[in-house]
Design a protein that fits this description.
By secondary structure, the protein is mostly helical. The protein contains 17 helices and seven strands. The strands form two sheets. The chain has a five-stranded mixed sheet with strand order 5-3-4-6-7. Strands 1-2 form a two-stranded antiparallel sheet.
Length: 430
């Protein structure tokens, strides 16, 4: 008797559950079940070339990359969810709601498509990655012309090959590049010059202001680099950034343009940034960085120093730099080149050095076929009456630190030293 009652209870419970499931079922699923042979799409159909659904993303990854677009992981629905029928609604009521949804979709399909296309495009550009092959450059470094092979350009060409070899070997040894995923963040520091097909990764305190001037002249925005003021270079927004393009545009330029960056000895670059931002009046770095640094690392700081943030000492600046719990975040002027330009993800065709700027820069301009009257400017962009930061000046600043702080600073920039083949700046470093 008990067994019979238990079996009846299980059957009754299952039947009730089935009824509840049918009543709570999504209207979109009901349409597909009740109207076989007719295709109803409750949302906007995405073009296959631009993105894939989450279910097929892994299977169709290579195909989309070849088409010049990156896969996008979409949410289940971009539109507000439909109302779910309750237990009290009848079957006729549900069928009526379905027919109304079908008619409403047909009427508003064109408007929804436009709106969702715009939303989808913003989503693709900002969120989804680009997958590129291990050697992304199709062009590589432009080939020397026959008349250049027996003059000074030949040795510079060989130097470029050696710099790239060291960079690739360092990346291969210390970095994992199995997936080669590039997001808009990785190309946010890269400036685009379409006429001569150049991509330039900006490294602050390594001649970036003058390089932007050169790009503006190449693009026809100015006739001479001397005519372009500092604020025009940095705040005029005349140059396009690579992350401002859609995925197809980014992918195309990474594969076909000549990509270059210029770097500088890490300690020298750091001292140059400190002198520029903290030893001269500055309406941004003093209140934002200076106040936080003085507040955290200076004992018995005066009220005036805490109020203005002026007068940061180099030793305090290094304490901030090495602190894993910094009171204020990093800044591009003293960040690693490895983070700014991602050289282990992006295969740069040309690697120039600040120490040989004039020679390297003019060689690069020769390679891309720039006008012969365009040369890299020699003038100092800011604080022109002040001596440039040299090796001697750099050593004077680092002499203020303890041996342990110098070692920690070297460790902080170790990958930049290794990747770009710079010697140890002090003999006691290991």
């Amino acid at each position: 008797m008990r067994l019979t009652c238990m079996f009846s209870f299980i059957l009754l419970f299952g039947a009730v559950g089935l009824v509840v499931f049918i009543h709570l079922q999504d209207p979109e699923e009901i349409v597909h079940q009740q109207t076989p042979g007719i295709k109803y799409n409750m949302g906007f159909q995405q073009p296959k070339k631009d993105c894939v659904s989450s279910n097929n993303q892994d299977r169709r990854l290579r195909k989309n990359t070849a088409d010049g677009a990156a896969p996008v992981k979409q949410s289940d629905s971009l539109e507000p969810s439909e109302s779910v029928p309750t237990k009290l609604q009848s079957t006729d009521r549900r069928q009526s709601s379905i027919m109304f949804a079908m008619k409403d979709q047909q009427k508003g399909e064109e408007t929804d498509a436009i709106r969702l296309h715009k939303r989808r495009r913003r989503f693709i550009i900002k969120k989804s990655p680009i997958l590129i092959s291990m050697n992304s450059s199709v062009l590589n470094l432009p080939t020397l012309k026959s008349e250049d092979r027996n003059n000074k350009w030949k040795s510079l060409y060989q130097i470029q090959g050696e710099r790239k070899r060291i960079m690739r070997e360092t990346c291969s040894k210390y970095k994992s590049n199995n997936r080669r995923i590039i997001t808009p963040y990785h190309v946010s520091r890269i400036f685009v010059e379409d006429k001569y097909r150049v991509l330039y990764c900006e490294v602050p305190k390594a001649g970036c202001s003058n390089w932007k001037r050169v790009l503006m002249v190449l693009n026809g925005l100015a006739s001479s680099t001397k005519d372009i003021q500092h604020n025009t270079v940095h705040y005029g927004n005349y140059l396009k950034r690579l992350d401002g393009f859609d995925h197809k545009g980014i992918y195309h330029r990474l594969n076909t343009y000549t990509k270059m960056l210029f770097i500088r000895e890490p300690f020298e670059k750091l001292v140059s940034a400190f002198r520029d931002k903290f030893e001269h009046p500055n309406n941004y770095y003093h209140p934002v960085f200076g106040k936080a640094i003085i507040s955290r690392y200076r004992v018995n700081a005066t009220k005036e120093a805490l109020r203005t943030g002026s007068g940061v000492k180099f030793k305090e600046f290094i304490q901030y730099l090495l602190d894993v719990h910094r009171p204020v975040g990093m800044d591009i002027h003293w960040d690693h080149v490895n983070r700014l330009c991602s050289p282990c993800l992006i295969d740069y065709d040309f690697v120039g050095k600040f120490e040989s700027m004039e020679e390297d820069a003019n060689f690069f301009l020769h390679l891309i076929g720039a006008p012969r009257n365009l040369t890299f400017p020699k003038f100092k962009d800011r604080h022109s009456n002040e001596e440039r930061t040299t090796t001697k000046i750099t050593q004077q600043y680092f002499a203020q630190l303890s041996p342990a702080q110098r070692q920690q600073s070297y460790d902080f920039y170790y990958m930049d030293y290794l990747m770009f083949n710079y010697s140890k700046p002090f003999e006691d470093l290991y």
